[in-house]
Write a structure and sequence with these properties.
It holds the Pfam family WD40. InterPro entries: WD40/YVTN_repeat-like_dom_sf (IPR015943), WD40_repeat_CS (IPR019775), WD40_repeat_dom_sf (IPR036322), WD40_rpt (IPR001680), WDR55/POC1 (IPR050505). It comes from Gymnopus androsaceus JB14. This protein folds into three domains: about 120 residues, no CATH class; about 130 residues, no CATH class; about 120 residues, 7 Propeller (Methylamine Dehydrogenase, Chain H), CATH 2.130.10.10. It is built from one helix and 42 strands. The protein has about 475 residues and is mostly beta strands. The protein is about 0% helix and about 50% strand. The strands form nine sheets. It has an eight-stranded mixed sheet with strand order 8-9-4-10-39-38-37-36, with no helix packed on it. Strands 1, 2, 3, 5, 6 and 7 form a six-stranded mixed sheet that branches. The N terminus is likely disordered. The protein starts with a strand and ends with a strand.
Amino acid sequence: MIKDDAYEFDLELSESYYDELPINCPLVNEVYSAVIPSEDAWISCYDHSPSDSAQSTSSGSLHTKVHVELDEEDREKVVLKVREGDLRIEEAERRDFNQSYVVSSPSLRVPHTALLFPVQEYVDPERTNPQKPHRITAFSLAADKSHIPISNYPYREQRFSKQIPYFRNVLSVQFYVHFATANHDIFASGLKAHKSTVTSLRFFPSSRVLLSSGADFTLQIYPADPISTSAVSSGQTSKRVSSVRTLSSHIRSVTSTAMIGRGRAIISASMDGTIRIWNVSTGEEEALVHSASGMPIPLTNGTLYAALHDGSFEVLKLDGSKKPPELVHEFRSERSAYGPLSTIAVSSSFPTAAEKFIAVGSTKGVISVYNASTYAPVLHFRRSEASIETLAFASLPGDSPRLGLVIATADGLPWVAELHTLPQEKATVYAELAGGDVDPVRAVSVHTMSNSEVEVWTASDDGIVRRYVL
């Protein structure tokens, strides 16, 4: 963690990591730009190496004060001087006004790890006040990057009742979706989307229609293009855009959605223990499958993967030859000993991996990886007991094919794991995604660009969307 009055971030798994402090890092930027002559900061290193999930997650730590200032001779160079402890910081290279450092400590024997800062942040000033942040409950990114819809949970004061031994939440029950362009930091006015928490956002393949689900048991379909005045209802404190379709049959919170083909039909999972198929044109439910309470459900090549609240995951095949389409049960895993599953991801969209894998995360911080062909367990690991909020596979850059897993956690320390299957199964830390203030990260999205560059987008409780480049 580097910390001063305005900025802090944590570093995990770092005995000798590749520490990039780019020009958009606030502390280094202020010193480099001569806004301030120098500043003291704290760097905290934690040894939370990924381990077998049955092992203890206790860690060693090192907390060192560092003095940040410009070099006396080279005024283009920012120097980090260690005030105490055995932390060692050396400049590795300088390119495009970005400086790279190698940090090491003999007292923490952990592997070489990259530290990545966001190359861009999307900030809505009205909803990112550090004292009253509107946490992001869901976000999505259009395929053409024309829109970034974001759902916020508005901040309200919490009051304590002496009669009830817990904090009573008096938050507003109105939730909004905000649109920003991916190229400009511009947010439109809030539009009321659901009566309760927005649980997921997903674009149709055209990038011009948006599907949302909520804790109010419904799914809504909205236009993603600029909203005309006539489409927004008046006479309310908050504007509400009229949905194209409202899909309602679930009797509990809708947790996730998936698209079939070009979006003529969609699939939803709910805490009511059902998975449903909907006809978009008619708004009618076409099929229903009972299961345990469903969590996120990625759909890959006609196969549906559902993480379940009872600790198991389920695989269903979509039979599109029938009208209406049917979901056929193919596999159900044993219940995990590590608590309810909170997220699931599938690697089949990445051709760089020799094998395809399924990864599930639990509320107790355990990540389990399975072979997608045989459903045999490959490995289990965790580095803290913080709940796994979201998982997303990524193809790691390099000459040889490598498979990565982006991990968003409730402790606000997102990271990227590299998965190794030969000669032995293990997970190592590829990179730390720094820049946040240990606010829980609820959502991630991975995108491979035309130049093979891999982008990772995150959204967290501080109300900020961050974009990283691996």
